[in-house]
Design goal:
About 40% of the residues lie in helices and about 15% in strands. The protein has 17 helices and 15 strands. The strands form three sheets. A seven-stranded mixed β-sheet has the order 3-2-1-6-7-8-9, with helices on both faces. A six-stranded parallel β-sheet has the order 12-11-10-13-14-15, with helices on both faces. A hairpin with a 2-residue loop joins strand 4 and strand 5. The longest helix is centred in the first third of the chain and has 16 residues. The protein is globular, with a radius of gyration of 23 Å.
Length: about 425
C-alpha cells in the first residue's frame, strides 16, 4: 500500500515556517523516516501541478530543484472538456451540487478510459492506496477536484488533515476573498473525504458540528478523529551547534535581554491588539526593561502590521523578526523569558507545546484548543481582556520565586510529545 502525502502549498512556499507549513514539514519528514520500518507501506510526498501530481524530493530546500518532471494523467477529449466546463457553470449558478457531480461522473465514466492507470514517475496509484491532503490546498484550481474524483473512482481512500475551521466559524478574522475560498473548498470537497483527521479534539468537535449544521457534507461513512501534534523540530534542519554570533544581529542583541516571545504570522485571530495593550500597561508600570519579540511573517494584514509599527516602542522594545529558521526559533525559545499566545481561537497552538518543551512559562488565552493543548501548565486569560494578560505578565516579572517554581514544575512534570510519536499516531489512524 502506498500513502501519498500532498504537501503542495508548503512545497511552493518553502520560506514559510510557521503554522500549517511547520506541521506539514515535520509530519511528512517523520512519516518518511518511520516508513522504513514497515514492509507493507510506502510513503510518497507529492504536490499537485494543475492536472496531476509530482513527487516532492525535499520540502526543506528552495523550490527550484524540489520536483521531478512527470507525465500528465489523462488526455481528455475536447468534447469532454467542453462538457465539464458547461456543467461546472451550471453547477455554480443554477443546479444542485450533488446532481451535477453525478452528471459529471457519468460523462467522465463514459468518455475517459476507466481502466486508465494513474501513473507518474515509477509509481502507479492503485485501489487501496491512501491520498492525504495535508496542506492548505483550498486555493488550488478546479482541476484538483477532478483529480480527487478520479482517485475516488479508482477506490483510493482520501484523507484530509483539518487544522481548524476559523474562516467558517469566525469569518471576521479573515478577508472576504479567503473566507469565500476556504468555505467553498470545505463545502464542495467534504463529500470526497473518507477520513478527517483533526489536530485537536476541539477541531474534531467543530468539524462534526459543521456537518450537523449542513455547512459540510454529512456522509455517514466519513470518519472524524483527532491526533496530537509534536513539539520538537526535525533534527536534520536544526543546527543546534551554531553559536549565537552566527545569527542575525537582532538575535545577538537579544542574548542577554529579557524578552516576551510571540510566535506565528501576524494575522487578526492571533489577537495582537491585546498583546500590545498589555505590553503598554507593562511598560507604564516600571517594567521598561522587557522586550516584546514577534517571530512570524508580516504583511498578511496591514492593520495588524500598522498596530505594531505605530507603537512608540517599535524598533526599541518591540521588534518584528519576520520568518525565522528552525535554529533561530530554537534560539528564541531557549532564551526567552516567556511565551504569549493570545489568539482568539486556535485549532492547536504549536508555540505552546514548543515553549513548554523548552521549559518556558506560557501565558495563553482560553480560545479554542489552547487549554486542551497546554493543560494546567499554562496561565490562561480571556482574549478580550488585556488587563488579565498584563496581570499574568506582571506576576511573573515581580516574583522570581514564582517564576522559578513554574519553570521547575514544567521541567519536572511536563511530558513532551515528539513529532515521531505524532507521525506514528497519525499512521495508526490511516491503517484503521
Amino acid at each position: 500500500m502506498k500513502i501519498f502525502i500532498d504537501c503542495t502549498h508548503t512545497a511552493k512556499h518553502t520560506y514559510k515556517n510557521t503554522g500549517i507549513h511547520r506541521v506539514v514539514r515535520e509530519l511528512t519528514s517523520e512519516l518518511l523516516q518511520i516508513s522504513s520500518n514497515y514492509t507493507d507501506i510506502e510513503i510518497v510526498a507529492v504536490m499537485f501541478d494543475g492536472s496531476f501530481i509530482k513527487r516532492v524530493t525535499n520540502i526543506n530546500k528552495q523550490p527550484d530543484n524540489n520536483f521531478v518532471k512527470v507525465n500528465k494523467y489523462l488526455n481528455l477529449s475536447k468534447i469532454n472538456i467542453k462538457t465539464q466546463s458547461l456543467l461546472l457553470k451550471l453547477k455554480n449558478k443554477f443546479i444542485n451540487l450533488i446532481y451535477i457531480l453525478n452528471l459529471i461522473d457519468w460523462f467522465d465514466s463514459n468518455l475517459a478510459n476507466k481502466k486508465a492507470l494513474l501513473e507518474f514517475e515509477d509509481y502507479i496509484i492503485q485501489p487501496g492506496d491512501i491520498y492525504v491532503i495535508a496542506d492548505a490546498n483550498w486555493d488550488l484550481p478546479k482541476t484538483y477536484y477532478r483529480f480527487l474524483q478520479t482517485l475516488k473512482r479508482h477506490e483510493v481512500t482520501i484523507v484530509v488533515i483539518c487544522y481548524d475551521l476559523i474562516p467558517i466559524k469566525f469569518p471576521e478574522f479573515s478577508s472576504k476573498r479567503f473566507t469565500k475560498a476556504f468555505t467553498k473548498f470545505y463545502g464542495d470537497y467534504s463529500i470526497l473525504f473518507d477520513k478527517v483527521l483533526c489536530i485537536s479534539k476541539k477541531s474534531a468537535e467543530d468539524y462534526i458540528n459543521a456537518r450537523r449544521q449542513g455547512i459540510l457534507a454529512n456522509k455517514n461513512s466519513q470518519i472524524v478523529q483527532s491526533f496530537r501534534l509534536g513539539g520538537n523540530y526535525y533534527k536534520h534542519d536544526l543546527l543546534l551547534s551554531e553559536e549565537p554570533k552566527k545569527f542575525d544581529i537582532k538575535l545577538q542583541k537579544l542574548l542577554n535581554k529579557k524578552y516576551i516571545l510571540v510566535v506565528g504570522s501576524l494575522v487578526p485571530h492571533k489577537n495582537i491588539k491585546t498583546i500590545i495593550a498589555a505590553f503598554d500597561l507593562l511598560i507604564n508600570s516600571s517594567h521598561d526593561d522587557v522586550f516584546l519579540i514577534f517571530a512570524g511573517n508580516k504583511g498578511w494584514h496591514s492593520e495588524t502590521d500598522n498596530l505594531i509599527e505605530s507603537n512608540k516602542m517599535y524598533g526599541k522594545l518591540i521588534q518584528i523578526l519576520g520568518s525565522v529558521t528552525d535554529a533561530q526559533l530554537d534560539f528564541l525559545y531557549q532564551n526567552c523569558y516567556c511565551l504569549v499566545q493570545a489568539s482568539f481561537y486556535e485549532g492547536f497552538g504549536l508555540p505552546v507545546v514548543e515553549a513548554l518543551q523548552h521549559c518556558k512559562p506560557v501565558i495563553a488565552s482560553n480560545g479554542g484548543s489552547l487549554p486542551e493543548v497546554g493543560g494546567d501548565f499554562c496561565r490562561y486569560f480571556s482574549p478580550t481582556q488585556p488587563t488579565e494578560l498584563y496581570e499574568a505578565l506582571k506576576e511573573l516579572l515581580n516574583s522570581e520565586i514564582y517564576y522559578n517554581n513554574l519553570v521547575a514544575r514544567i521541567r519536572n512534570e511536563y511530558i513532551p510529545f515528539s513529532w515521531q510519536e505524532s507521525a506514528e499516531e497519525f499512521l495508526s489512524y490511516l491503517y484503521n
